[in-house]
Amino acid sequence: MTACEYKEPPHNDRESLDLPEGVPPLRSFYLYLSNSCNLSCRHCWISPRFTSGQPDPGDIIDVEALRGAITEAKPMGLTTIKLTGGEPLLHPRFREICAMATNEKMDLLMETNGTLLTAELALFLKNETSMTFVSVSIDSAVESKHDAFRGTKGAFLATLQGLDHLVAAGYENVQVIMSVHRGNSNEIEDVVRLAERHGAASVKLNPVTSCGRGAGMNQRGETLDFADRLSLDQYIFKELSPLLRSEGTAPDLILNSPLALMPISEIMRQQGATGDCGVLGILGILGSGEIAMCGIGRNVPELVYGRLGKDSIRTVWLDHPVLDKLRRVLNDVDSYPALCRECTLARRCRTGCVAQNFINGKQLVWPDPLCDSACRQGLFPATRKKRMLSGATVMSP
After folding, report:
1. Alpha-carbon torsion, ordered 289, 328, 273, 30, to 10 deg
2. Do strands 80-84 and 28-32 pair parallel, antiparallel, or not at all (unpaired)?
3. Can you list the domains of the chain with their CATH numbers?
4. Residues 6+ apart with CB under 8 A from 82
5. Pairing state of beta strands 80-84 and 175-180?
């Protein structure tokens, strides 16, 4: 699975919430319903246990404890729940969880590999739940290459069938997510065309990160280096995206890239689909029941805050020292590392994914490696710096 794919809409009702001054609303739960997955993807940043059947007890979120957490979080602003994993459809009480969240007036979103979606389940989600957005993962337009990357024969055809079921059920906004690495970076347009043929509304490109199983790919030189990323950004922003927009019917194309290295026109077009992940309004709940920043808690115990059913959601949200520190450092741009502090987009970017920051530098606030490399090589856009060193080479904004 990937990291955050959905941007919360703005809310203006803080005065009606039960929160002390200085504590932001808790807008969203990210539910990693299962610590297991029916695929064994080479890049997965969470590294779930592979299973071809039902996950073991302790690998899935306890439904009654979750019900209590939702009840406790609603007065603090909870409005949205994202279902992910592992593979969320492996949870044996998946439908019950969707029905419960719908009854609690939650907006539901889901990230899935798509292989377990049936026509009947897609109709259930569309017609009987508040599920508004679903993304599925496709990493190659070639069946054998996708299956090899996902570690399971038959995954490609099952995912396409799942995508077809969602579209047939009436979802007009289904997103395909492609995890980009050196082995498939030349297939992006092919995947976009495949997604278009199957009715997807958008394709999001997430370059594989050095986390979980992705760390092994990085060590083997399979992930994109700085030069690869520059080429990718130029290809997407200057060639493929304009081509797709000129055609008018192709899926929207979104590249997960640092805001400082994106053209302003692309930042405006994406309307917040990349950049600040909204972490100040999110709690993750892992299949083990651990309450964490997000799925990063699977691999980084320092970012686990408590346990569902044992620790109060309210107490965690109001008082946990990591959350308190996160709020202080993200809101104090003047304390950011120099590169981020001097960036004109610092208040919007907030240094990007703080979970990945912690992996990269053991700090919640840390420059994106791409921004750091661009600065070191004199390629950081002059238009994004409050002060620019003389003689630096300037990328086009």
Report:
1. 10
2. parallel
3. 14-302 (3.20.20.70)
4. 6, 28, 29, 30, 31, 108, 109, 110, 111
5. unpaired
Percent of the chain with pLDDT over 90: 71
The pTM of this model reads 0.91
Gap between the Cα atoms of 46 and 388, Å rounded: 38
> Tokens at residue 251, please?
């899926």
Strand ranges (E), 131-173: 131-137
Question: What does the chain come to in residues?
Answer: 397
Q: How far apart are the first and last CA of the chain?
A: 31
Region 191-204: what's the mean pLDDT?
97
What does 166-223 look like in DSSP terms, one character per residue?
A: HHHHT-S--EEEEEE-TTTGGGHHHHHHHHHHTT-SEEEEEEPPSSTTHHHHHHTT-S
- pLDDT band at 389, cuts 50/70/90? very low
CA nearest to 363, candidates 351, 372, 375, 373: 351
Query: Binning pLDDT at 50, 70 and 90, where does residue 13 land?
Result: low
